Amino acid sequence: MTLPPFVPSVAPDIEATIQSKLAALEADHDVRILFAIESGSRAWGFPSPDSDYDVRFIYAHKPNWYLSIEPGRDVIELPIEGDWDINGWDIRKALGLLIKPNPVMLEWLSSPIRYRWNEDICARLTRFADKTTFGESCLHHYRNLAVKQWDKHVGDNTDVPLKKYFYILRPALAISWIKQNPTVQPPMNLQALVAGQSLDDALVAQIEQLLIAKASAKEIGRGERIPMIDAFIHEQIAWANVVAKLEERPDLMAEGNDILHAIVNRSSLGVA
User: Fold this and answer.
1) Among 144, 145, 150, which residue's Cα sits nearest to residue 164?
2) Per-residue pLDDT for 195 more than 80?
3) Can you give the pTM of this predicted structure?
4) Average pLDDT along the chain
5) Which residues pair with 116 in a beta bridge?
6) Fewer CB near the terminus (10 Å): N or C of the chain?
7) What is the bridge-based pairing of β-strands 84-90 and 53-60?
């Protein structure tokens, strides 16, 4: 059993507003946006009618910015206003996080909603990320995310914010994905996470019903706990607690530096 397909979309007027805000950020901060995507429930596959827009981007400064003795701020954040949550990372910060590894940026690179997209740069970043963020290397991230969200939003409560329920279910599904597909990065989209692994039909049916409830409820909507989903979440966290370990990773610092230099200097990115 699989979930109905989810087709993410952004209205033309919203798209135009986002493009205007991104252009203003480039001008105000004297940076070049390498890619900008949607990272939130609208891209994850479980939006509410009033979901906000979580725009995330990676940018590069001009070369001289990286030559300062005093490191500059490596994050650009706009104040959250109304439906807009917009922030981004400098490319040096992003590459440093990938090497750790941290799967967030690879999720951004797989977002189904793209606002800006440099094909050559994104392809090179994806190839690099594929070397650092998959399998057991990701378990720490998804396990910690699931536990943190559970403790914060569920705990002993008898009902749950539907939005936050999915914030726990998605990393739990990612852990289950890694169990079944250890060499493939978990997809960002919830529907793809479910479709790409073997799950009990009854569990998939419960997830589908939860999706229907979430789609018709506002962001603050709540619902009763679902024992089968709770049990699945705890099973995945327990498995990750046992299996997750810090793997020996290849030294990718030199390659990361080469990518950084190529992007900042606008030179060839190579084929590694």
Assistant:
1) 150
2) yes
3) 0.87
4) 88
5) 36
6) C
7) parallel
